[in-house]
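Supplementary notes for students who missed Thursday's class. We covered one full example, reproduced here. Read the sequence, then the structure, then the short commentary at the end.
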Amino acid sequence: MSDLSLTILAETANDAQAIERLLERTFGPGRFVLSAYRIREHVDHVLELSFTAWIGTLLVGSVRQLPATIGNTKALLLGPLTVEPPFRKHGVGRLLLERALADARAKGHRLVLLVGDEAYYGRVGFKAVPSGHATMPGPVDYKRLLVAELVDGAFDGVSGAVRPDWDFSK
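Structure (token representation):
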């Protein structure tokens, strides 16, 4: 992490406005047409599984996870992950990802899904979803649909539509 003094904290309700401003700066308004946002617009993210990165009082990154299902299998949908541009390439995103996955595993979750770059997310255990195993609403590049098994073999036999989990409970 070089010489940055970074603190990773669970997101709180008080962080919402600062995170929204960060997302606006880093992704812009076009983010709302992405397929993952079709799911996010229907269910809230889980605060205890969503994290912020701070340098002092400056918010420099955020990652959120929300409840979803793949067919009838419970999962988490990770994203968005964002880091302020001047703080990229310092490991902030990776630390946020590692914390999000570790806490999800510790709370008994088995699968985490996301839409992203396998070269980046593969470093923390994500791999491409095999063709035809999951569908998403709206336009999606299925080569970017990734899954991380928090328990070995958790994705075996899983297939179906990715939907928000309105009845979130483990």
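Commentary. The chain has a mean pLDDT of 88. The longest helix spans residues 92-106. If anything here is unclear, bring it to office hours.
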